[in-house]
Amino acid sequence: MDPQYSAQDIVRCDLCETPVPPMCCDICHINLCIACVGVHLSDDSRDHKVVPFHKRGSTINYPKCQKHPPKTCEVHCKYCNIPICASCFSSGDHDQHKKIDILEILTKKKELIEKDLQELKKLIRPKFQQAASEIPAQKAGVKQHSLKLTAALNKQGEALHKEINSLIQKKQSEIEAMDEQHLAAITTQEDVINKALHEIKQVILDLQNLLDSDDVCLVSEYTSRNEEFRSLPAQFQVTLPTFRPQEINSDQLYQQLGSLSQLLITYPLIDEPTRTTEEHGGQKKTPAAVSSPPARPLSDKPLSDSPRILNDIQTEFGGYGNGLYNVSCLSDEEIWTSGNNKIMKLYNLKGELLKSVQTKSGNKPQDIAVTRSGGLVYTDYHDRSINLVSGTQIQTLITLKGWRPLRLCSTASGDLLVIMESDDVKQTKVVRYSGSTEKQCIQWDDQGNPLYSSYNIKYLSENRNLDICVADNRAGAVVVVSAAGKLRFRYTGPPSTPRESFYPVSITTDSQANILTSDCYNNRIHIIDQDGHFLRFIHNCGLQRPFGLCVDSKDNLFVAERDTGKVKKIMYYK
Hints:
Number of strands: 32
Strand order of the largest sheet: 9-32-31-30
CATH architecture of the largest domain: 7 Propeller
Largest sheet: 4 strands, antiparallel
CATH class of the largest domain: Mainly Beta
Number of domains: 2
CATH topology of the largest domain: Methylamine Dehydrogenase, Chain H
Distance between the termini: 52 Å
CATH superfamily of the largest domain: YVTN repeat-like/Quinoprotein amine dehydrogenase
């Protein structure tokens, strides 16, 4: 219960609980009856000042000097921002410093406290109480709206069932019509055969009579009709109808059921523009994906016109057959690297090798990523596994069947996103894992077309708005989908240079939700915003075959150069 609205108990002596004590110790802050005053003052381990109860709080409790105990401090040195006693004052250490009476500070602080207290009571708490009182109605509204959606969904489901039943009945009618046509043909055939049988029967009677007759004229007039009856009437050929059921496409059927717009939650911390789905030649507006509120609002950090290299780290990778491919930040001072061999290596910014880890299988790691807890995960393409390095131990988290893992990243929620290709390298998909449990699969767009090309290099990263960004090298595009897996846009290069080749390799995102992708063969980095608009290149830093990318907590970019084996730390914000 809120103390402001609860009944208050009578004041009592803190030692014996006698009601309405007339005295109090203004230093120890305890209430005392007359009988307990002497008992309290007998404790000489600390100072006391007993005053009438109505004068409580009138004694200033000056702070003790840290340098000259047990002297008290009555002055505050503004330059040093510490309380000082008379000995500190006379020592000359603070002669040139501005000094303030502690009582003045106390008065100003109490004025501030009183102001804050009144604001909390009169403005802030009522506002939060009002907001809290509206929550039950909001929760009830969610349920009511959900019931409306469910009712609409069930109505559409009934309409689909009715339509399907109607189509089935139509097909059944077609079957019955073909049955009637077939039976009519058989009946016609039956009539012809029965007519021939009747004639044959009559001929047999006539021939029997001729055999019994002695009439020479009658017998001599006989003409054989056997040739006429030796062949059956012409038989019709029948090709019976068959039913070939169409394979049911659950994705198309799902689309036929209807579309459900995404929940759009707008947080006041971000002034977020309308999102667009953009491809050269047109724009298509789409609702934003549902996302958790960001750790901090986007700030207007200007990009630098002249990015500069802060560190140039030479690794043991590089050279023919030993290219450096991947880099991932363990911290602002340490980076994991991997390349075209089985060893993953941890370096500091001085280029000192801190740790080396060999893959469990002895195969080269396809990609590496650092988890939120600081563990190292890597994909092994050849044995289809995703593995976690913890200390000196390597644990296999996931082993795939029919698919091989390519690249991966760790998400803000602690999940893993893995892009993988089928064994026949004809299909590509992104799968979200929580631990070793598959939570989501992203492969097709709303029209049932593949989102990603087959084969070749693909890297991925999660943006701070929870979009999933894939650098699709073969498609020459950065493909961005929402957290729900809906296509938002494809970036295929800046509009100003539409004819230039663009083959993105690695990809990363920063705190401003900007997307950075390495254009290895053009020796530059593209920076685009969260809606796919080109911002600028990083290309004047002497980059040579930039491949793997990552950013640290301060938005410094780390670029792994494939051929030189160098990792360059670049500051690209002002």
